[in-house]
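2.7 Reproducibility. Because tokenized structures are sensitive to small changes in the input, we list the exact sequence used for Long-chain-fatty-acid--CoA ligase FadD15, including any N-terminal residues retained from the expression construct. No trimming or masking was applied before prediction.
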Amino acid sequence: MSIRRLFDIAHQAMEKFPNDSMFVTKYHGEWKKTSTKEFINLGNKISRGLLKLGIKPGDKIALITSSTRTEWAVMDLGILQIGAVSVPVYPTISPEDYNYIFNNAEVKYCFLSDRALLEKVNAIKENVPSLQGIFTFDNIDGAASWKEVMDLGEDESTQTEVEDISKTINPEDLATIIYTSGTTGKPKGVMLSHTNIVSNVLASDSRIPRVKGLDNKDIKVLSFLPICHIFERMLFYLYQSNGYSIYFAESIDKMGENIKEVQPHIMSVVPRLIEKVYDKIYDKGTSAGGLKSKIFLWALGVNEAKKKIGKPSGLKEIIADKLVFSKWREGLGGNIITLVSGSAALSPRLNNLFQNAGIPILEGYGLTETSPVISVNSKDRMKVGTVGHPLENLDVKIEADGEITVKGPSIFKGYFKNEELTREAFTEDGFFKTGDIGHIDQEGFLHITDRKKEMFKTSGGKYVAPQMIENMAKASKFIEQIMVVGEGEKMPTALVQPDFNFAKSWAERKNIKIGDTPAEIAKNPELKARIEKDIDYLNTKLGGWEQIKKIELTPEVWSIEDGLLTPTLKLKRKAIKEKYIALYNKMYGA
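Resulting structure tokens (single pass, no recycling of outputs):
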């Protein structure tokens, strides 16, 4: 059978790659496997149960989970194959955003994972006239369980109704509305059809490296990014279509433990995670002391001196790999064939370090509106510092002002209930405007320079691209997060969130009293002077108009929970500036 609708993926997987461990989730300390056959049976039960509840094609059903689990996958299949529309929602958004999304989408039912999320939805349910019921995956006293819907669908005699409806579903029909987390303003409902996502899955498939000598069902994926984000969700379908075993990580905090248990072959990551992994590796290597630290730093030097990505060649590289980089691979489970990186730009230096350590990273690029992949590197065609070649089924064009525009089957249907915003998102000749600045080099690789909306102009009329500078700055061990500012000002400056743990260990080595809390550490003048030293070095690599002239250290960790980072760990620039406006004014003498 051919894959034309999203739910076709599971049914084709049953035909081609039946797997006893299609999905694996950890419950109460034990990994529980769900086979392809069981997955489809459960999805059919949900479909039948939803029909009994009166769900019709086009009705909207919200899905929210604190961490991805098999129940989400079952619900997704059950919803889509009867023509209903899934509305995945980020668990960390504010009650105001929950209220807006539920009303804007006219959500009829909500399925969620746990008590904390139930309390959030209960707090706004009286304001949502369309909402008819809330079901939970966890067993919670006083709450309706999702198993009640399963029980409604227990009778298989109504399966013909499910199959009859699924036959009528057109690939161009709306499959999902994904509300972008956004860095400013209200969330936008991105409408994606079955064709949008399926075309992206099929076009991206050839970019994933294969493992010789392993059956598809033996390839293990560890999934931990939010599945409500289109990056992880598209990959979720891509892995399904290949019959891989998908293990859902418990949380980011338990990633290290889960990696050791699962020993995955593939993981999708965001640059911030790779930065954190490297920071831990570096801290461990340099704090070992004596000969171990010397060997570690020597091996890093060998790695960085390597001119071409590939297996170790020459005695130095072989020794460095044996003594140091083999341990990096063991730390990631020992089986990694690739990390798929998206959502933001990855530092070329870090990318090179991992590639040369035998840990391939395929960096790609896309947006929710493009389902999401526009371009991605592959094992055979890779250039570090780029986001690879555009997918073969897309037409990518660079406009006169450098903006990347794209046309093709994976470009979204529009913004839900917002025709004006939809019109503004496209050029006159029908290309979607990404809002990103970039260029395509002579070899066909796409380079991303910056976000068009995030570039700013100083009072001297010079444009500054903050993302590029921020990525370079985070090479400093002292800098956890940094936001370059200066719109309309005479010079760029930066708000810096120090790496408080690294700062403590540095202060201990230097016998400096730095304090214990982030607020105390951020006030330390010696720490600030040390970070300024790294900023001065960075400035030598920048044009005069781009150089960061002043910094201020922020006294808290920037997080998703406090609204300063998006769920994929991007900066919420407006929120950060508002929170630290006093520090901003201090830098500009206001």
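Residues 183 and 572 are 5 Å apart (CA to CA).
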